Amino acid sequence: MVEKGKYLEEKIVYFEEPGLQNTEETLRLAISRAEARHINKFVLASTRGDTARIAAKCFAGTNIKLIVIPHQYGFMREVQRFPQELVSELEQQGHRVHFGTMLFHTDDLYGTRVPSALATLLRTFCQGIKVAVEIILMATDAGCVTAGEKVIVVTGTGRGADTAVVATAAPSTRLHNLHISEIICKPLETKSWPPTGRPPRPAEDRGSDVEKPE
Length: 214
What we know:
By secondary structure, this protein is of the alpha/beta class.
């Protein structure tokens, strides 16, 4: 970060294509920013656990703690895709896994289209930004992070990680207190889902790993 008068200059990395291939670089950039900002807590979206495993390996030997947010139970199918054995493994390493209500997918519960509208608006930045805001709220609602705490948030598009931000945490009851202060990296182009808010699903399972709520 370069200080110039009353403003700061910081690098943002834009990936030419979203997706899995950016995972390691996203984590590297996020760790570097965490060290520069003295942040030791990461909120990470992971559906199948692949990226959670990679992140935990990267953070081994550091004081960084992970708050992993998978899909809530029953979101896309009866079986939870995040392995229970990985939950135990991560918790033994001092990390935490939280299965909570995905706040931008509550239209049927509350009978309003506001959650979908918020999600669509955030996707104009990129899918990862939408997920980042959602999982910060979820993590704070669960007490995994403290309101007002600075955290690094890592998310993605489809599978893998391609988006990372520095954010000030807030609960869903105080959305106005949530702030994304720095974008570390993101895909150059956004990727919009259909009006359902979920990605198209061809014959093979398209459930994301890090994208979390599709």
